[in-house]
Amino acid sequence: MAKSDITGKRxxxxxxxxHSNIKTKRWQNVNVQTRRIWVPELGRFVTLSVTTxxxxxxxxxxxxxxxxxxxxxx
Length: 74
Known about the structure:
Strand 3 (about 30-40) and strand 4 (about 45-50) form a beta hairpin. By secondary structure, the protein is α+β, with helices and mostly antiparallel strands. Helices cover about 25% and strands about 40% of the residues. It is elongated and about 55 Å long. A two-stranded antiparallel sheet has the order 1-2. The model has no long low-confidence stretch (mean pLDDT about 95). The chain is built from 2 helices and 4 strands, in the order ββββαα. The chain has helices at about 50-60, 65-70; strands at about 10-15, 25-30, 30-40, 45-50.
């Protein structure tokens, strides 16, 4: 299942709306990527499944600070 290791985001249920305004259920998948992320505090790479939004925040804040925000130990 596509799920972020840090934030826990996973697919959501949404409606597909046709031209005649008929609503049918469909899935909205999250963009999960498997990445090796360098953690300077540990001095090694950590392999994580993270969303692309997580990657942007990790670049901005750092891996340990972002994981600490969500209560995840690397």
